[in-house]
Amino acid sequence: MAEEYQVTSLVVHCKPELETQVSDSLTNIAGVEIHASDNNGKMVVTVESHSQSALLDGVEAINKTQGVLSATLVYHQIEPVEE
């Protein structure tokens, strides 16, 4: 199977009073990066991976993070990795 690059973006809503803790937790998940926050519990997040299963694991970990209310998929892209 050819290697792929996968990226998905999400809008994550969390309890505003827990935003700092949620942000710290999310940045500890492999492939996750926070790009923006409104300091009221809304964040723009990406998850990058080289496999669909790892990407889904990252999204699932976001959803299971304490304080996260919702994680809404906005975009998903798959590109083959050139050898």
From TrEMBL:
The keyword Ion transport does not apply. It is found in: Cytoplasm. GO terms for biological process: negative regulation of protein transport. Interacts with the cytoplasmic NapA precursor. This is Chaperone NapD. Belongs to the NapD family. Chaperone for NapA, the catalytic subunit of the periplasmic nitrate reductase. It binds directly and specifically to the twin-arginine signal peptide of NapA, preventing premature interaction with the Tat translocase and premature export. Keywords: Chaperone, Cytoplasm. The keyword Glycoprotein does not apply. One of its GO terms (molecular function) is signal sequence binding. One of its GO terms (cellular component) is cytoplasm. It comes from Paraferrimonas haliotis. The gene is napD. InterPro entries: Chaperone_NapD_NO3_reduct (IPR005623).
